Automatic annotation (TrEMBL):
Pathway as given in its UniProt record: Amino-acid biosynthesis; L-methionine biosynthesis via de novo pathway; L-homocysteine from L-cystathionine: step 1/1
Descriptive protein name: Cystathionine beta-lyase
Listed SUPFAM superfamilies: PLP-dependent transferases
One MF annotation (Gene Ontology) recorded for this entry: cysteine-S-conjugate beta-lyase activity
Pfam family, one: Cys_Met_Meta_PP
Enzyme class of the recorded protein, top EC level: lyase
């Protein structure tokens, strides 16, 4: 797996060191929580000199951050080879919205992957539509075929890989190359893989988005998002985000930095346990398919093996029959899996998912799906819990 290189470039080393500039930490191991709204200046001349447009990494006014936020933003930039800078947001959805608003204008067309996170679809069908931006949804498996959809008004292609409900892995380099050849911007929701598993910019992506709520914070206690940008798109992203008034509390940024230090370790464990459980599910007669990017059931798993340096803890499986009641019996019986939205925390979750109603460019006609967030519990305990769930599923079907 990833991060085992002995030269200091391994993931564990990278997340421990990232963003800890001495001028921000002042000798303390972790950048402390700097709370601020007003910043006091020494003189009018100092005030005037500080009012320059680009206040990146300079104390100016609380909304533009303090070393607490800069340290986390910088860490995320360091983890993404080819990146210029990162802007933080109060949620993943806020990050997606700012990134899209930074690149799109009225009259533009957005190509949005049909497997996208539902709130991303809602943004496109809601606010973006009201602004006169049209969205065309495309098949996640389109690959280089995206070129055929690019028209004179196409300004951006949005990818999410793997899809967070259905796990199709996209051919990111092919899509990015086709877009770049036509001057079209690419945005990737990289929440599942994080830059530790998928270096987005190295594959040709312009703007890489994370719901840091998930793996970066890692403890299901913080809402946080980020967009990491190439130099070309950074001014637009920064200016749009400033205009939108986006800012993150120093406490949340601090929790993000706190989580980041263990992210490589957690991801390795999440990935290993998830793969163990996915392989076990493959052997079960109750299961029709396991939608885990590393397994052949999952569309695009060849791209996973080609482009990703490791896995994560989120995947889904398709039940071999039954309906809503049987699926609910399975999930309700589980003790170690909570029932709840979001994922990427230390605790396991099970969720019934019904992607068919979100699709417009493609059809989804598989059986009942259950999405699992595999947490940091012992996989043998999780398997025993799932065994009990399957017994309840079978009993409900009788
Ligand atoms: C959760 C999630 C988001 C949104 O993040 P929030 O912090 O909950 O707003 C975006 N994309 C994906 C793939 C997600 O799973």
């Amino acid at each position: 797996m990833s991060g085992d290189t002995p030269d200091g470039s391994g993931n564990g080393t990278r997340v421990v060191r990232a963003g800890r500039r001495p001028e921000w930490t002042q000798g303390i191991v972790s950048a402390p929580v700097w709370r601020a709204s007003t910043i006091l200046y020494e003189s009018v001349a100092h005030l005037r000199a500080s009012a320059a447009k680009d206040t990146h990494h300079r104390l100016f006014y609380g909304r533009r951050g303090t070393p607490t936020q800069w340290s986390l933003a910088d860490a995320l930039t360091e983890l993404e080879p080819g990146a210029e800078a990162t802007f933080l947001y109060p949620s993943g959805v806020a990050a997606i919205a700012a990134a899209l608003l930074a690149v799109l204008s009225p009259g533009d067309e957005l190509l949005l992957v049909d497997s996208a996170y539902d709130p991303t679809r809602n943004l496109s069908n809601g606010l973006l539509k009201r602004m006169g931006i049209t969205t065309r949804f495309y098949d996640p498996m389109i690959g280089a075929g995206i070129a055929d959809l690019i028209g004179p008004n196409t300004r951006a292609v949005f990818l999410e890989s793997p899809g967070s409900l259905t796990f199709e892995v996209q051919d990111i380099p092919a899509i990015a190359a086709a877009a770049r050849a036509r001057g079209v911007v690419t945005l990737l929701d990289n929440t599942w893989a994080t830059p530790l598993r998928l270096p987005a910019m190295a594959l040709g992506i312009d703007l890489s988005i994370l719901a840091c709520t998930k793996y970066v914070t890692g403890h299901s206690d913080t809402m946080l998002g980020s967009v990491t940008s190439t130099a070309e798109h950074w001014p637009a992203l920064r200016d749009t985000s400033f205009q939108l008034g986006q800012t993150v509390s120093p406490d949340d940024a601090w929790l993000g930095s706190r989580g980041l230090r263990t992210m490589a370790l957690r991801l390795d464990r999440h990935a290993e346990s998830a793969l163990t459980i996915a392989r076990w599910l493959k052997t079960r007669s109750e299961v029709a398919a396991v939608l885990h990017p590393a397994l052949a059931d999952c569309p695009g798993s060849e791209y996973f093996h080609r482009d990703f340096t490791g896995g994560a803890g989120l995947f889904a499986f398709e039940l071999a029959g039954g309906g809503e009641a049987e699926r609910a019996a399975l999930i309700d019986t589980l003790d170690l899996f909570g029932i709840g939205y979001s994922w990427g925390g230390f605790e396991s979750l099970a969720l019934p998912v019904d992607p068919a109603r979100y699709r417009t460019a493609t059809r989804w006609n598989r059986g009942p799906l259950v999405r699992l967030n595999i947490g940091l519990e012992d996989p043998a305990d999780l398997i025993a819990d799932l065994e009990r769930g399957f017994a309840a599923w079978a009993a409900a079907a009788r």
